[in-house]
Amino acid sequence: MQRRDFLHSMALAGAGLVIPVGRSAWAATAPSPTQKKLIVVMLRGAVDGLNVVAPYADPNYRILRPTIALARPGQEGGALDLDGHFGLHPALAPLLPLWQQKKLAFVHASGSPDPTRSHFDAQDYMESATPGVKSTPDGWMNRLAALLPGTAGPSRALSVGAVMPRILAGRAPAINLPNGAAGTKADVLDRPAVAAAFDALYANHERFGRAYADGRAAHREVMEAAESREMQAADNGAPLPNGFPDDAARLATLMRNDSNIQLAFIALGGWDTHANQGAATGQLANRLQPLGLGLATLAQRLGPMFDDTTILVISEFGRTARQNGNGGTDHGHGNVMWLLGGRVAGGKVHGDWPGVDDSALNEGRDLAVTTDFRAVLAQIAERHLRLPDTQLSRLLPALPQKLSVPQLYV
Q1: What angle do CA 94, 97, 102 make, to 5 degrees?
Q2: Which CATH number is 164's domain given?
Q3: In the 8-state DSSP scheme, what is residue 384?
Q4: What is the pTM (predicted TM-score) of this model?
Q5: pLDDT tens across 242-279, in order?
Q6: Rounded to whole angstroms, how far apart are CA atoms 265 and 141?
Q7: What residues contact residue 321 under an 8 Å CB cut-off, 6+ apart?
Q8: Nearest-5° angle of CA 406, CA 157, CA 388?
Q9: Mean pLDDT lowest for which of 165-174, 180-189, 358-367, 379-388?
């Protein structure tokens, strides 16, 4: 990249616009709203899936976790029964109605085939959807935005967080909003004098003019959605709860007000529970409670749009089946993926359950992976988002031909 182009890109970034430059720069596309939506929530730090959806009926579960295993349903601090074998962590009680309505499902013993226990590498593979390959230049949600049928404006893909995540990096345009109320507040480019100056600077710029115009249009689109009467009426002058429930409610309203937003991503940290993890109460429960409330809020605030939405909750890997000497769990392998939505085959724990008997554990310590996470992504793309089969290999390169694929949609 030439120094002149670098300076232009830095100026645009400072103005709150995410504009790819160089060989990966994207071509502008005309807006075209798409009905089917996907929201991905990533739990960074590796959440303990064995206590999120606990195999309470598995005889070895309590032996492996003498102080952190969830009690059986009906007992004090017990799991919320799902199907007679698995139970939901009690801190996730706000999600139980969605399970009962068959709008919530889990895929247990799922994850990446790559054996790494590095958070950095595993998150990279989960976001690129190319396990074991570090050279992949883009994220799978960015590829998805580029491959989906029809054309859409630059607000098709949206991230909520401090920085643009790996999963949305690539050629396709994407918007990044900060967490909290600041994400939908006016920025420096909303000042008329500043906007006029930038408009004059980039209006006829050969390299960045079109990208700048699309970025400004996307920003205005999101701001208009945030300032709608619906959002003001729902808030009723009071601030929403802090943290994820706040962001979830705001995201739902943005998506309802702007039909061009089709793909959304948000990441939450704090799941690396090496010590004092707890069972029904404690560190993990304190993380799960706002997560469950936020997901329930997201589903409720989406309204009728929830029927055309899939919410996917993922984490880079699971945690050890055995608790450690500090009352926590260490980096593991297999985990549980969550799916919420009006058309998911809910009320079921999907996947080939290997059990947690000592002889079934991966490397003698972890829940095994029997469902490649890419098989779940493939079904979401094909069955929910209607991605043509011919495009699947571009979305998920090197996808194995033979995969265990649970039927996740009705």
Answers
A1: 130
A2: 3.40.720
A3: I
A4: 0.80
A5: 389 999 999 999 999 998 999 999 999 999 999 999 99
A6: 9
A7: 50, 64, 65, 332, 356, 361, 365, 366, 367
A8: 45
A9: 180-189
